[in-house]
Amino acid sequence: MTQEAAGTEEGSGAPAMASRRRLLRTGVVAGGAMLAASARAASPPDDPMWSRTLGPGVADRPYGQPSQYEKDAIRRYVPWLTQSTQSDVSFTPLQDQPGILTANGFFYERYHSGRPSVDPAQHRLLIHGLVDRPLLLSMDQLQRFPSVARIHFLECAANGGPEWPAAQLNSLQFTHGMVGCAEWVGVPLSTLLGEVGVKKEGKWVLVEGADGAHMDRSLPIEKCLDDCLVVWGQNGEALRPEQGFPLRLIVPGWQGNVSVKWLRRIEVGATPWYTREETGKYTELLPSGKALGFTWVNEAKSVLTFPCPEKPLTSGAGFYELRGLAWSGRGKIRQVDVSTDGGVSYTRAALQEPVLTKALTRFTLPWRWDGKPVLLQSRATDETGYVQPGIAELRKVMGTGSVYLNNSIQTWQVLADGSVNNVQLS
Amino acid sequence: MTQEAAGTEEGSGAPAMASRRRLLRTGVVAGGAMLAASARAASPPDDPMWSRTLGPGVADRPYGQPSQYEKDAIRRYVPWLTQSTQSDVSFTPLQDQPGILTANGFFYERYHSGRPSVDPAQHRLLIHGLVDRPLLLSMDQLQRFPSVARIHFLECAANGGPEWPAAQLNSLQFTHGMVGCAEWVGVPLSTLLGEVGVKKEGKWVLVEGADGAHMDRSLPIEKCLDDCLVVWGQNGEALRPEQGFPLRLIVPGWQGNVSVKWLRRIEVGATPWYTREETGKYTELLPSGKALGFTWVNEAKSVLTFPCPEKPLTSGAGFYELRGLAWSGRGKIRQVDVSTDGGVSYTRAALQEPVLTKALTRFTLPWRWDGKPVLLQSRATDETGYVQPGIAELRKVMGTGSVYLNNSIQTWQVLADGSVNNVQLS
User: Fold this and answer.
1) Considering only CB atoms, which chain A residues are within 8 Å of B30?
2) What domains are defined for chain A?
3) Span B255-263, mean pLDDT?
């Protein structure tokens, strides 16, 4: 947890080389492993205070809270990124996320007119336009439709945006923290569209939020009928206010802004609406002067979450487990390869089961650090065969003026003292 | 959300019969569905306040919180259940859990000496006894071992205990809320036992907590080498204090008390320790006067979470989706059957994918309520072929004096007004 803790053991106490070499070789730990003598002990330490006293009972926290020792595990924002905290983003502390799910308290926020507090008793969803039978639904009515629960990631189109020109934010939280993953529960959008009856000319769908920004985006009908969800549940409870309480859209695998929050209106039309959010924003200006529009998919991406700038190697040379997350808006992650020499050579990482479609996927690789500087990378390949590109490769297409769609390979530079830096290789 | 909300629609607005009959028949909604005319509308309601104003920005809640409208979605305790809130249980609000995961803020609490606040920098795990190389590990050292993430349920042995003599608590939260499900992240116990080297005579393992109760239980070495985990992560963040922060054991599929929290000691021995918690408590006194001991497994169980006493049918006759959760300590759920006539006939429910081993499994069944009183039940079958028993069947073996192991079929009585009661059929 801290260097201080390791210090009390009179040495690093890390699992020693001999054991870890065998682990690397066999992938399992059998008997007879060797460990640094300093971690050997035959008796427990003296009872600390909490082992000799009564704690508080079950009455004081009807809704649970994290430990007081976890106060640094929080979302953070970058003061210079936008002009107002009401049209801003706070980043997921990925360095504190142990598995594929993002705690609701950690899940990144992005909104354009602040975080509204919507009364679910008053909230309505209108479905209209090129439909046979328009609908105005209360939450009660909506929740009577057949529902599903699915685990998917959400990633902002601008995740990694500040890194386009150069590596600058020395932080996993800020380079990759506009992503999260949750179990979403709600009604398939296809069910609702079936209920209203889409006319033959209906090829596009406008989705609109109830916040002050009235955030709205156009979506092709094919995606709406495929896997989109209108959800009220997230990771075991109702949506949080910043995630669209009481109702949001989930467009699996597509950039976060189209998963409109505080969803209040779905209109079926014949053509896209070309709203401000898909013309003035969320487009990519190319070096040629032309701009890409309707670039929806989060292409395959990965990053090592341990080590990272916030979680350096604190115990010197020896065994560590490299850990990371990978995801693809096209489906499942097929493989992740990890390099410790800046991309010269790669080793296949283990993927944590279950590997779910359009969800964060956890990967691990046992590793023995020799204590010298290294360049760590991970590279994801998804089930379509798409391989996560390097930043140089991406810049050939996108230039350096982009804000969106940076899914490049991340390089962490580990120095001899165990500290970790965000660098880019030419 | 509330009856009031539906009321503003000038009628129930529920999806009408014709549509739902087709849904029941085909399982999908195609075009041309019929809906009550009252829910039809062509224009949105007037903008509410939150659509005309700015909300707060990203700076005020670095750790997220639920909506102010969700203040009734909380854990609750039964004042008469134990003599002190420090040796008590608070129940998961299952009626507010939309999917298979239990929000960390909802996850039931059970402890014997209050909720300790353990400093992770001072916490140590001792592994000793019949081993070749005893170990004393800091959290830092422990977190360097190869780790896994797995989704498993936890259920207290006493879940449903008050219902042994008769149905009495008219609440899903209190009849079934000593269960939860989370993604746990940590080190396989087999890895740690491999590291210390278990001697040939080592057949049992004592696990002990750092709380004031020093909660301890004996476990057979086979289970420890199978699927037990020593975890620090839960649903995307560190363990909560009431869940054992910074370190707990997870014994998948076995009653919650053996998944010792605030884990500080693992001792390998030749025989069980017969601790207070496995002799005076957590045993089952049979009508014969003999008691069962070391009854570890949570056998297959299920319950309808909608409707339930807390979530009645508020919109009158018509279409509803019956929803519930099933689980088994023996592995995966194979099927769930739902009855609307008190167990005379059953219909197979749909299971939500992915169905994970020793995890909560979500099931659903489309249903048209005719507005008359009904008796709803669900019955789980796991992959071993074990079928969840009725309460009468269970009492033939266990009598009515038991506290633990009540995995019987739950009956919800729905009255004509839509209210739901906890009843038992003879």
Assistant:
1) 194
2) 301-423 (2.60.40.650)
3) 97
